[in-house]
Design brief:
By secondary structure, this protein is of the alpha+beta class. The protein has four helices and four strands. The protein is rod-shaped.
């Protein structure tokens, strides 16, 4: 805080001194204008810190992305189970695997666990999920992998 006060006071002093030293004319007006802009920038600079998210300085570094990913994944999985049941009439357990990478959340896999489902239904399920934009769709039957695809 003291560095900020010293910087602000120094900028104001420099502006006042330049106004007294420089002769009246276009140069004086131009220099005073620029120095006043610098003073305003220095005085307003703490407000800019309110709006910046700086991961390097630790601001916002306490975000628990693992927790966010797990909640997001669980929510997507539950919604997908409901959607598959409503649209295709297939009872299944769904797991949408989501990761946080490069500042974005990405879906990497979809694991579907079914019981007593015919191959045609599995094919229809995979096509339906592809249409929804899911990738890496893996369908299992009670612990045994029965169909895997991209």
């Amino acid at each position: 805080m003291s560095a900020y006060i010293l910087t602000a006071a120094g900028a104001v002093f420099l502006t006042a001194a330049a106004g007294m030293i420089l002769p009246d004319g276009k140069l004086n007006k131009s220099v005073n204008f620029v120095l006043r802009l610098v003073c305003i920038g220095i005085l307003v600079s703490p407000l800019a810190g309110i709006f910046n998210f700086d991961a390097e300085s630790g601001a916002g570094a306490d975000v628990d992305y693992d927790y966010i990913v797990s909640v997001f994944s669980q929510s997507q999985s539950e919604e997908l189970e409901k959607l598959v049941k409503d649209e295709l009439g297939i009872e299944c357990g769904c797991e949408v695997v989501i990761i946080y990478e490069d500042g974005t959340f990405k879906q990497t896999d979809v694991n579907i666990c079914t019981d007593n489902v015919e191959y045609e239904e599995i094919s229809a399920l995979r096509e339906y999920l592809k249409e929804l934009g899911y990738i890496n769709i893996n369908v299992y039957e009670e612990g045994d992998r029965i169909h895997q695809g991209q």
